[in-house]
Amino acid sequence: MTENDPKTNKTETPEVDPAPDAQAPFEDLQDGLDEAAEPSVEDDLRAALAENEKLRDQLLRTLADAENTRRRAERDRDEATKYGISKFAKDLLTVADNLRRALEAVAQTADAADALKALAEGVAATEREMLAVFERNGLEKIDPADEPFDPNVHQAMFEMPGTDKPAGTVVQVMAPGYQLHGRLLRPAMVGVAKGEVDKQAATEG
């Protein structure tokens, strides 16, 4: 064959590899996109610090509110202790006024009998007013004369024989008791019958 033979004389185009740096811009672009899509460690740290500061501020506010609430409760408790009986004390002022009027009336009376009568009337009026004040404030008097002895609200001071009363009957009230809104403040100090009537009935039987 000759070099000019058209069948054999074919022009071959050599393969050319791309330049080594041709793909580099595309790889750099992809890396940049990846970095933009994923937050950096610095961003995570800044977000964590911001959240921590927010939680710290909330904690400080909560502690401040709790302290203010504690102080208000302490102040209210102190005021209740000091002034809780204000209404009761105000009502008692009328009792003091009546007692003073009774004493003044006695001082202005020349006759001894009239003075004693005025004093008795004034003291009686004062007691009535005082009991009314007690009742308005939930303070109830316990005066159990001729009632059966009740150890829940009475305190027996002695037994009294010869009363012709059933055993355990209150025959003398040395000091009345008092209860506040149903809660016992002081039991009534009483003397109770010894019960000779029962013994005599048993003997006769």
Describe the structure.
The protein is an alpha+beta fold. The chain has helices at 24-37, 41-83, 86-107, 112-136, 196-204; strands at 139-142, 154-160, 170-175, 177-180, 183-186, 188-193. The protein is built from five helices and six strands; from the N terminus they run H-H-H-H-E-E-E-E-E-E-H. The strands form two sheets. The protein has a three-stranded antiparallel β-sheet. It has a domain at 140-205: Nucleotide Exchange Factor Grpe, Chain A, domain 2, CATH 2.30.22.10. Helix 3 packs antiparallel against helix 4 (112-136).
Topology summary:
Elements: H1 24-37, H2 41-83, H3 86-107, H4 112-136, E1 139-142, E2 154-160, E3 170-175, E4 177-180, E5 183-186, E6 188-193, H5 196-204
Parallel strand pairs: 2-6
Antiparallel strand pairs: 1-4, 3-6, 4-5
Helix pairs in contact: 3-4
